[in-house]
Design goal:
- The chain is α+β, with helices and mostly antiparallel strands.
- It has a six-stranded mixed sheet with strand order 1-11-10-7-8-4. A five-stranded mixed sheet has the order 2-5-6-9-3, with no helix packed on it. Strands 21, 22, 23, 26 and 27 form a five-stranded antiparallel sheet that branches.
- Helix 8 (474-482) crosses helix 12, helix 11 packs across helix 12 (550-565) and helix 14 packs across helix 15.
- Residues 1-20, 525-549 and 619-638 have low confidence and may be disordered.
- This is SEFIR domain-containing protein.
- One of its GO terms (molecular function) is interleukin-17 receptor activity.
C-alpha cells in the first residue's frame, strides 16, 4: 500500500514549519468532529481504501501537530487533521480513509471516517465549505518524528518539534518528557565540601542519576556522591542530572553553578596546573623542548622557555629570548581524567642547557614554574634502592627458610603422623636379621617385630622361626615367607649394620665375578623348589659367615638383585637401621652399597612413624593398606616423579612471574625476586648438608 501511495501521480506535499509553542487540546479519546451540513460522523480503524469520486477538496488536507492533554496535564504529541469536504453528485452517505506512516513503521496505519451529507444544510451555507476534524494519538507519533498523512490522492508531511524545543516553551510542566530534576548548591566551609540539594528527589518514582564535566563541551562522567570536595571545585565545573526512566525519554538538566564564583574557585584551577617537559632531538639534528600543560579548565596563558640557574636558588629561571607562546582555545583537548590538555613545543633551543618552562596565567599576579624535565638520575636512584631492598628481603627470606625448613618439615610430619596413628594397618612383614646378630641387635629386632605385630601387621621374624628354618632350610623358608607378600601385601625389612653393609659390598663383588652363576642362584631363589637344596658350585655365593642366618641374608640379597634387574627395586624390600648401632663401616668411603641403593631407609626410633606410613601406603596386596585397603590415587607415583612435578610447577610459576615482571610492574618484579630466593633457599636447605660435606672433603 505504501508503494501505491508513492505511485500516485497527483501528490500534494505540505511541509509545515512549526512554531515552538504547540496548541494544547483537551483530549479524552480519539474522536472526530464535523461542521454543519455533515452528520453521523464516526471513526474506526480500517484498511486504506481508494474510492471513486474522493469527497475531499483538492486543497482540503491540513495536518498540524498539537499536544493532546488530559485535564491540562500529561500532554503527549498528536496530530490534528482537517479535511475540507466537497460532496460529489449529490452524495448523501459517504466515507474517506485517512492513513499515516512514520519511518519506523513498515506499513501505514489507517482510520476510516464515515459521515452523512445534509444537502439542505449545504444549500444554506453555499458560501462556506463542510469539513471534518480528526485527532490521532499513537505510540508511533512522538517528538522529532516525521509523519506523512495520506487521504485519497493527497499527501502531507510534517515534522514534530523535538523535546528540547517543546520544553523550552510554555509547555514545560505539562509534558512528562520535560520533567527534569532541579538542584541548588550549598557550600559547607567547616567540612570543606559543596552539597548538591535536589528538589523533590524523594517524591520522584524514578532514581536520580548524575554526572560531572568540565566546560560545556567536556565529557560528562558518572558521579555518585553528592558532596563535592571544596578543593576540587572549579568555575568550569558543570553537572547533568536526570531521572532514570529506563528509556530515551530521560531528559537531562545541565547547570554550571560555580561559573559566577571565579574569585573563590579560580585558585583551585591555578593549584592544579601541571606541565610535563621533555627535551628531544629534531630530525634536523637540533634540540627542541616539548611540553604538555594540563589544567581543570581552559586557560588564557603564556608559556616560554627559560634556563635554570646552577646556583643554590633552583627556582630562579632566566627567560630565553622573546619566544612566548599564547594558549588558544581551539587546541585544547580533554584527557582521560577529565582535565584539559594543551601541547606545545619550542624548537631550535640550545642543547646542553638546563632548560625549563614558565607559565603566566591571566588573572594571577605571579608566574607558575619553573617546570623542568624529569631528572633521570633520580629515577635510576629509586630503581637501585628498590632493587637493593628487594635483594635484602630476598636474602632474609632465604636465611629464614634455611633455619625454619627443618622445623616446618617436622611440624608437617608430626601432623601427618597423627593422622596415620588413627588408622589401622594390615599386611605381612618379614623381618630379617643382619649376618652379625648379637644380643643387643637381636633384642632390638624382637622389639621391632613385637611393635609391628601390635599395630595389626602379620610379622614373621627369622629369630622366631629357628625350628622351621632348620627343618625346611634357609632358602625354602625365605621363599615361603616372601610368597605371601604378593597376595596379602607387605614388605621385607633388612636390618642394616656394619656387617650387613660389608656383606652387601662383598656379595656385589662376588656377583660381578661369578656372572651367570649368580643369576642362576637368584633365579633359583625365586622359583618354588620345595625341600630341594642348592647343590655344588651354587653354594659359593650363599656361603659366608658361620651364623645360621647368613644364608637367609645372602638369599635376600639375591632377591634384591633380581628386583634391581626388573626395575622394581624397593617394591618388596626396605632397610631399617637402629640408631644405637653404627651402620657404615669405618673402612668404607662410599655411600650405600650399590645393591642397597634405591631401597627406602629408615632410622629407628626417630623415624618409626615414617616406617609405619611406608608399610601402610607401600603394601600392594589386596588386603593391605589402610581403612578398606583401597589403593590411593597417587600411590604409584615415585619420589623422583613427585620431585619432577614440583620442579615443573615452580618452573611454570616462575615463568609467569617473570613475564609479568618484564612488563615493568614493580609489584610482580618484587614477587618474582622473592620467589626465586624462596626456591633457592628451599633447594639449599634440602641439599645443604650434602654440599657442606663435599666442601669439607675437598678441603
Amino acid at each position: 500500500m505504501k508503494a501505491m501511495f508513492f505511485g500516485w501521480s497527483l501528490l500534494s506535499i505540505q511541509l509545515l514549519v512549526l512554531a515552538l509553542e504547540l496548541e494544547m487540546i483537551d483530549y479524552e479519546s480519539q474522536h472526530v468532529t464535523c461542521s454543519k451540513g455533515l452528520s453521523n460522523c464516526t471513526v474506526k480503524a480500517g484498511p486504506g481504501i481508494l474510492i471513486q469520486g474522493c469527497p475531499v477538496d483538492e486543497k482540503g488536507l491540513a495536518v498540524q501537530p498539537v499536544l493532546c492533554c488530559r485535564q491540562g496535564t500529561a500532554c503527549r504529541p498528536c496530530l490534528h487533521i482537517r479535511l475540507d469536504i466537497q460532496p460529489r453528485n449529490h452524495q448523501t452517505a459517504s466515507y474517506v480513509s485517512v492513513c499515516y506512516i512514520v519511518p519506523e513503521l513498515i506499513m501505514p496505519l489507517c482510520k476510516k471516517l464515515e459521515f452523512t451529507v445534509i444537502p439542505a444544510a449545504l444549500d444554506e451555507q453555499a458560501s462556506s465549505k463542510a469539513w471534518l476534524s480528526l485527532l490521532i494519538e499513537s505510540e508511533a507519533v512522538s517528538f522529532s518524528s516525521q509523519v506523512t498523512v495520506y487521504v485519497c490522492i493527497f499527501r502531507s508531511t510534517v515534522v514534530l518539534p523535538s523535546v528540547d524545543e517543546v520544553c523550552s516553551s510554555a509547555s514545560q510542566g505539562v509534558v512528562e518528557e520535560c520533567e527534569v530534576p532541579s538542584f541548588s548548591t550549598l557550600i559547607d566551609q567547616e567540612r570543606r565540601e559543596v552539597m548538591l540539594q535536589v528538589a523533590k528527589e524523594e517524591d520522584s518514582p524514578h532514581p536520580l542519576e548524575m554526572c560531572l564535566q568540565h566546560e560545556d563541551n567536556g565529557v560528562c562522567r558518572a558521579w555518585k556522591e553528592k558532596p563535592v570536595p571544596l578543593h576540587s571545585v572549579t568555575p568550569c565545573m558543570c553537572f547533568q542530572l536526570w531521572w532514570d526512566k529506563g528509556d530515551e525519554r530521560s531528559r537531562r538538566s545541565m547547570s554550571c553553578p560555580f561559573r559566577n564564583n571565579t574569585e573563590m574557585f579560580q585558585r583551585n584551577v591555578w593549584e592544579n596546573v601541571s606541565v610535563s617537559v621533555v627535551q628531544r632531538q629534531m630530525n634536523s639534528g637540533g634540540a627542541m623542548l616539548s611540553w604538555n600543560l594540563t589544567a581543570p579548565c581552559r586557560l588564557e596563558a603564556e608559556v616560554w622557555p627559560c634556563q635554570r640557574d646552577a646556583g643554590v636558588d633552583k627556582d630562579r629561571c632566566t627567560e630565553l629570548g622573546d619566544i612566548r607562546q599564547r594558549l588558544s582555545n581551539d587546541i585544547w583537548r580533554e584527557n582521560d581524567r577529565g582535565h584539559w590538555l594543551m601541547p606545545g613545543v619550542f624548537e631550535d633551543v640550545k642543547p646542553g642547557l638546563d632548560l625549563c618552562v614558565m607559565v603566566k596565567v591571566k588573572g594571577k599576579n605571579s608566574e607558575l614554574g619553573p617546570f623542568c624535565p624529569i631528572d633521570s638520575s633520580r629515577w635510576h636512584w629509586r630503581w637501585s634502592l628498590l632493587i637493593l631492598v628487594s635483594l635484602m628481603l630476598a636474602g632474609l627470606a632465604v636465611i629464614c627458610l634455611y633455619f625454619l625448613h627443618c622445623k616446618l618439615k617436622r611440624w608437617a610430619w608430626e601432623w601427618h603422623q597423627k593422622e596415620w596413628d588413627q588408622l589401622p594397618i594390615r599386611g605381612h612383614v618379614v623381618l630379617l636379621s643382619p649376618p652379625d646378630v648379637d644380643g643387643s641387635v637381636s633384642e632390638l629386632v624382637c622389639e621391632l617385630g613385637s611393635s609391628l605385630r601390635a599395630r595389626g601387621l602379620s610379622v614373621s621374624v627369622d629369630l622366631w622361626n629357628r625350628a622351621e628354618m632348620c627343618s625346611l632350610g634357609p632358602l625354602p623358608w625365605l621363599h615361603s615367607q616372601l610368597q605371601p607378600l604378593n597376595s596379602q601385601g607387605g614388605r621385607a625389612l633388612l636390618v642394616l649394620t656394619q656387617a650387613a653393609w660389608k656383606k652387601a659390598e662383598d656379595w656385589g663383588r662376588q656377583w660381578d665375578q661369578q656372572g651367570q652363576q649368580g643369576r642362576d642362584i637368584a633365579q633359583g631363589v625365586e622359583e618354588e623348589k620345595g625341600d630341594e637344596e642348592v647343590e655344588g658350585e651354587d653354594k659359593r655365593l650363599l656361603q659366608g659367615l658361620s651364623s645360621p642366618y647368613a644364608d637367609v641374608f645372602s638369599a635376600a640379597l639375591s632377591c634384591i638383585k633380581v628386583d634391581h634387574q626388573q626395575g622394581c627395586a624397593g617394591k618388596r624390600f626396605l632397610l631399617v637401621h637402629f640408631e644405637s648401632h653404627s651402620a657404615k663401616p669405618l673402612s668404607s668411603e662410599r655411600g650405600l652399597p650399590e645393591l642397597f641403593q634405591g631401597l627406602p631407609l629408615f632410622h629407628l626410633p626417630s623415624q618409626s612413624q615414617g616406617l609405619l606410613v611406608e608399610l601402610a601406603i607401600g603394601s600392594k596386596g589386596p588386603g593391605a593398606g589402610i581403612g578398606v585397603g583401597e589403593k590411593g590415587l597417587f600411590e604409584d607415583i615415585q619420589d623422583e616423579e613427585v620431585e619432577v612435578l614440583q620442579q615443573m610447577f615452580f618452573g611454570v610459576l616462575l615463568c609467569a612471574l617473570a613475564t609479568l615482571a618484564a612488563k615493568g610492574d614493580m609489584v610482580f618484579t618484587s614477587i618474582f625476586m622473592g620467589g626465586v630466593a624462596a626456591i633457592a633457599g628451599y633447594w639449599l636447605s634440602d641439599r645443604g648438608d650434602r654440599v657442606l660435606d663435599s666442601f669439607l672433603k675437598g678441603r
